[in-house]
Design brief:
With 145 residues, this protein is an alpha+beta fold. It has two domains: 1-30; 32-123, OB fold (Dihydrolipoamide Acetyltransferase, E2P) (Beta Barrel). The chain contains three helices and seven strands; from the N terminus they run H-E-H-E-E-E-E-E-E-H. The chain has helices spanning 2-29, 36-42, 129-144, and strands at residues 32-34, 51-57, 63-65, 68-75, 78-84, 99-106, 112-120. Strands 2-4-5-7-6 form a five-stranded mixed beta barrel. The longest helix is centred in the N-terminal third of the chain and has 28 residues, at 2-29. The termini are far apart.
Length: 145
């Protein structure tokens, strides 16, 4: 009977340790998605938590200075200055007017300190103007015949 108790205690310790590690990892990697207007409001009530924000890169705002990259995101009239100082290289699609997703923390000065950047070019997924015209011509031709 003692072996069953020892085995049960050992299993309980292992399961308890795994649950504790999982819950601790979840709380450390938890990231809240915010809009740029919400971040502007947060700058008044500073919170030190990981955040994720998306926007379009303002044309001409990308400036590389050593290992840091400075740029500005916008959503409508609202803008957000971002400093990326992560170790991963920036994606190839990180260009003017591209949609970008920055992951990091809002600094006390209102500048977003990003450690991860994801970007996609919206024009990459749209049909080319010549293809759009062909599809309309093809559709019109199929209705005629």
């Amino acid at each position: 009977m003692k072996t069953y108790v020892k085995f049960g205690v050992l299993i309980a310790l292992i399961v308890g340790s795994l649950v504790w590690l999982a819950l601790g990892g979840i709380s450390q990697t938890k990231t809240y998605y915010k809009t740029i207007p919400e971040l502007a409001e947060m700058a008044k009530n500073r919170q030190d938590q990981r955040l994720r924000v998306a926007g379009d890169i303002v044309p001409g705002s990308i400036v590389r200075h050593g290992a840091q990259v400075f740029f500005t995101l916008h959503q409508g009239p609202q803008t957000l200055n971002v400093v990326y100082s992560g170790t991963d290289p920036l994606p190839d699609t990180f260009k003017d007017n591209a949609q970008a997703l920055a992951d990091g923390r809002l600094g006390p000065d209102g500048v977003f300190q990003a450690t991860k950047i994801q970007a996609k070019c919206a024009s990459k997924y749209e049909a080319k103007p010549s293809q759009r015209g062909l599809s309309h011509e093809t559709a019109a031709a199929s209705k005629v015949s």
